[in-house]
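tool=predict chain=A
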Amino acid sequence: MKHKIIRNYKIHAFESKQDFLNQIKKEEKILIAMNAEKILKDDEHLRDIVNRNIGYPDGVGAVMALNKNGLDAVKIPGAEFWLNIIKEFEKEKTFYFVGSSADVMEKTVLKLQKEFLHVNIIGYRDGYLKEGDKEKLIEDLHVKKPDIVFIAQGSPRQEYLMEELIKVHPALYMGLGGSFDVYSGLKKRAPKIFIDLRVEWLYRLLKEPTRISRQVTLIKFIVLLKLGKL
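tool=predict ok
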């Protein structure tokens, strides 16, 4: 897999979603969404996890950085790509889901079973791990041995958890943030026109003005990139 080191984070470049799917077919690693905010984060633990696994360009900032460093890369939105993974491998792999609330997970699993008739979901639970729940989760993964595990807790908490889990049960893991909330209908994703124009961030800002600090981070990232400091 082609990659570049951006601010000491290893970020892989993919020419298409299918290219990414082909690359991960036999992988037992963690897929980590990389964007401007995460690249600028000074978190040595997170950086170590990313560099030992597969960081992919989930945000426009990461794509711009890869392009400037000479690699062809497309944006791979994690909020869509987990469904591409299920569609690609539903007949041959088993799946396990962790995240959000119990109600959201029930709705997510029911919708997946309707949309993907061959999907083999062998386990799921909410993402609010109370005392003793992590040990129960580890035991369940050890017993059921899913091929693909999706964890939606928000970053970097989900990455820290996946790092623990993969040591006990090797599989393909992917962090999903709030994707289950969107898929189940609890939250709405940006309209297609915002996605096509690559300004999904603007829609999220309009819906949630408190996200302004994240957009300031993107501007800072672009300035640093233009100045050659990334």
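The chain has a mean pLDDT of 91. The longest strand covers residues 94-99.
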